[in-house]
Design brief:
- The structure is a single chain.
- The protein is α+β, with helices and mostly antiparallel strands.
- It contains nine helices and 13 strands.
- The protein has helices spanning 64-83, 104-119, 126-129, 141-148, 202-215, 218-238, 241-263, 271-279, 305-319, and strands spanning 2-16, 23-43, 47-51, 88-94, 151-154, 157-158, 177-181, 187-194, 286-289, 296-301, 323-328, 336-338, 345-347.
- α1 (64-83) crosses α2 (104-119) and α8 packs across α9.
- The longest helix is centred in the last third of the chain and has 23 residues, at 241-263.
């Protein structure tokens, strides 16, 4: 039996949505240590899938569990075909909240592929095969953090390849990593998950993104480029959490201007009220909406973690909604794979398949 465990990711936004520039998208994000998706797999004559509720994961309604099962069955079936094996018995031990802005789809797809590959002692080649699973078509952050964690800026896609219709699965490549930095050990990320409808996904997300791209004002991309190069990248390279938080919060706000018509404002309700409240907290260095939300992130550090959590609770109260608040570490390593002997963790990062023993996690 093989087990793969991967952390969630935050998505701070895109560098460009305008067709006026040479490269489209170009996402920024960071890998998290928790919450996590955990998938087990073992060889079997056909595809069999089970989903169980694991301790410490958000509760799922009876309506959402079948959706997780259906997704995993699709990913497992595709993985079996890609790997050329007969089948696999796949069990989801822990899953991320679906469509909450934490990268649940990509992490679950990649973990399923990696677990089935490890069960057969085969290389996963997640980056190469992710498009066949329907992942990595716009943002490369999910695949990159699954591989190696850390803060990631991907290079996006050539604008000339943009089409109004979604390409078939497999007819794209995952955007390459343009920059990656390890996140300092003392940085923390506040997660505020308000009780709200799921974020855009599937056909609705495709339609919203297409509309945003067709209407995107190119000047916003120029402003974001300056923030990325002169503020965000220097801040993470130098370990300045305050400057980093302010930079990614501004990037998120500018991204929201592209999406305002699609989501009902710069942030989707009730995210705007939560972000506004957190922006006034001294313990939170910057706040924004991760992907389509509803998860709100805040950048903080170990010294301010407790105060940031309290600020998160106050933000939910001020917005008049329930929800969950946590403070988590970043992850500077990719997914972890136990190949079944219980003795070592194996890397699933690029150019390493799933066969190289992981070192000290640096």
């Amino acid at each position: 039996m093989a087990r793969v465990s991967a952390g969630a990711r935050l998505h701070f936004g895109f560098c460009n949505l305008s067709l006026s520039h040479e490269r489209l998208y170009g996402a920024l994000g960071v890998g998290l240590d928790s919450p996590r998706v955990v998938v087990d797999a073992e060889p079997a004559p056909a595809v069999r899938v089970a989903v169980e509720q694991a301790a410490g994961t958000p509760s799922e309604s009876s309506d959402s569990s079948p959706s997780v099962r259906d997704d995993v069955r699709g990913y497992a079936t595709a993985a079996v075909d890609l790997l050329g094996v007969d089948g696999a018995r796949v069990t989801v031990r822990e899953s991320l909240p679906r469509h909450a802005g934490l990268g649940s789809g990509t992490q679950l797809a990649a973990a399923t592929l990696a677990a089935v590959a490890a069960a057969y002692d085969l290389p996963a080649r997640v980056r190469e095969r992710a498009p066949a699973l329907g992942r990595g078509g716009r943002s490369g952050v999910g695949v990159a953090t699954f591989e190696d964690g850390g803060f990631v800026l991907d290079a996006g896609h050539p604008t000339a390849r943009f089409t109004t219709d979604r390409p078939a699965n497999g007819e794209w490549t995952v955007p390459p990593v343009a920059a990656r930095h390890a996140v300092p050990d003392d940085w923390r990320f506040l997660l505020v998950a308000p009780e709200a409808a799921a974020g855009r996904n599937g056909a609705a997300e495709d339609d919203a993104m297409r509309t945003a791209v067709e209407r995107a004002e190119p000047g916003l991309a120029d402003r974001i480029a300056g923030i990325v190069t002169r503020r965000a990248l220097p801040a993470v390279a130098s370990g300045n959490a305050e400057a980093f938080g302010a930079a990614v919060a501004e990037i998120g706000r500018l991204n929201g201007a592209w999406y305002a018509d699609e989501q009902g404002g710069v942030y989707r309700p009730p995210v705007g009220e939560v972000v506004d409240s957190l922006s006034g907290a001294a313990s939170v260095f910057g706040a924004g909406q991760s992907s389509w939300g509803p998860t709100v992130y805040g950048v903080t550090d170990a010294a301010h973690a407790d105060a940031a959590a309290e600020a998160g609770e106050r933000a939910l109260d001020a917005a008049g909604v329930g929800g969950e608040v946590s403070v988590v570490r970043a992850s500077n390593e990719g997914a972890r794979t136990d190949a079944g002997n219980g003795a070592e963790l194996l890397s699933v990062g690029p150019e390493r398949g799933n066969t190289k023993p992981r070192g000290d996690g640096a």
